[in-house]
Amino acid sequence: MAREDCDLAVTSQLRKMEDGTMISNNSHSSYDVVVIGAGPAGAAVAALLEPKGHRCLVVESSAFPRYHVGESLIPHTHGTFDRLGLLPRMRESDFPVKHSVCFVQSTTSEATPFYFSETIEGDRSRTWQVERSEFDEICIDNARDAGAEVRMQTRVRHVLFEGDRAVGVRLENSDGGTDDVAARVVVDASGRSTVLGKQLGLKIDVPGLNKSSIWTYYRGGHRNEGIAAGETTIFMLPCGGWFWYIPLPNDEVSVGIVADPEYLFRDGPQLETAFDREVKLCEPLRDWLSSAEQIDELRGIRKLAYLNREVVGNGWVMVGDAAGFLDPIYSSGLFLALASGELAADCIDDALKADDVSAERLGAFVDPLWRGVEVIHRLIRAFYDPDFSFGKFAKKHPEQQAAIIDCLVGDVVGKDMSSLLETLAEMSPPPPPLHESIVL
Ligand SMILES: Cc1cc2nc3c(=O)[nH]c(=O)nc-3n(C[C@H](O)[C@H](O)[C@H](O)COP(=O)(O)OP(=O)(O)OC[C@H]3O[C@@H](n4cnc5c(N)ncnc54)[C@H](O)[C@@H]3O)c2cc1C
């Protein structure tokens, strides 16, 4: 449907503002693309599609700025930021610049830093630690500036189908009223809410990957100096779990633990009991927080990982966390949200131009993307394998160091990583591949 056709569906309403002026509120009941969720994945889709002439509506249930966990970017987001025109905005922000990630053994304090400049040259080897309330607002403002319509505090109740084809969404406004909106393509970017995954019964556990997390924020904790000031530190724990330590603006730091639920909640379900006990047990982290003040509540998720058996269908696509989430150990969530948003936007553009929104056409990006996710999955499983250590692996296979850094920066999509995976299999037996659970 061309833009002119959409205009037939415009309902122009006059809205009274607080100062008494009347403004016209152009709201449409038909769009080329409706995006569920204004997080980084949804914002990327809309910002890339609108300038190509596709009318986009982004529907967001909360009011921005809103809190979100997941602050550490990885360098391979650079290309998407570039396409989105966001690099200047990121460079002028006060987000700490991240050059590296460092894995620290909590019992010996032995540290293994990985500097991204080992495999990437120049600006692309740096990225940022972002405060999500601000970062997500930058992303959605960018989509708005590109011309996308954004409706905040409006929830998508469910996706509307005709047969097996998605044809729109039912919205619930903040006053409780509902609206049906037609769309040629519905993009589920609803994050962990997984609107379509739940509606279609597609959501499944990831076999063998069962981790929980608890996290909070401090002010006045330890700060590394120089190039390591914006480094992510991972404290590896004897229980097989780990703490993240992510420096943020205003002398704040995000600190969280990921571990088996049976271990983490062995003294009961209270977040405080488990978190305080583990901080006390992790000596180097305890030292870094010794003069810090906790500035936020504790938050937790009992089951981190999930997938959907299908991530694309006729007239619909899932991107970012709405498609699946594995584990935060390599900070790949935001990268995958932005990359899937970008790749999906290109396929949607192609499908809309060809007037063919079949699953096959919309899902042309799914196979290469999920083969990249499979590489990250293999590294995640190796990390949690008690018989595997990256230190030992790096000593035995120095030729694989560059491939490991490729994974840590996110350079895994459309790349042949078979040599790394075969070598990894010698030290850590491969888990069942994700494509046994999902349709690629
Ligand atoms: C404990 C933990 C630590 C993490 N750490 C990192 C990290 O360090 N680095 C990293 O890169 N990633 C990290 N992640 C992952 C990261 O947070 C996510 O991958 C990322 O936020 C995904 O972005 P998204 O746009 O897909 O979803 P989101 O950012 O979750 O956005 C989804 C949006 O959809 C909205 N929404 C939901 N339901 C509806 C509805 N029905 N109608 C309308 N709107 C709706 C939500 O309000 C939300 O704004 C972490 C995740 C966890 C759980």
User: By CATH's scheme, which homologous superfamily of the largest domain applies?
Assistant: FAD/NAD(P)-binding domain
Global geometry: globular
> What portion of the residues fall into strands of 2 or more residues?
25-35%
The structure class reads alpha+beta
Poorly predicted spans: 1-26
The count of helical stretches stands at 15
> Rg from C-alpha positions?
22 Å
Using DSSP, what is the number of strands?
A: 23
CATH architecture of the largest domain: 3-Layer(bba) Sandwich
Q: What name does the CATH topology of the largest domain carry?
A: FAD/NAD(P)-binding domain
Main pleated sheet: 8 strands, mixed
Structure overview:
The chain is an alpha+beta fold. The protein folds into 2 domains: 1-72 and 132-205 and 305-440, FAD/NAD(P)-binding domain, CATH 3.50.50; 96-129 and 210-301, D-Amino Acid Oxidase, Chain A, domain 2, CATH 3.30.9. The protein contains 15 helices and 23 strands. Strands 3, 4, 9, 10, 11, 12, 21 and 22 form an 8-stranded mixed beta sheet that branches. Helix 2 runs parallel beside helix 10. The longest helix is centred in the C-terminal third of the chain and has 22 residues, at 333-354. The chain is globular, with a radius of gyration of 22 Å. The two termini are 29 Å apart. It binds flavin-adenine dinucleotide (FAD). Flavin-adenine dinucleotide (FAD) binds next to helix 2, strand 10, strand 14 and helix 10.
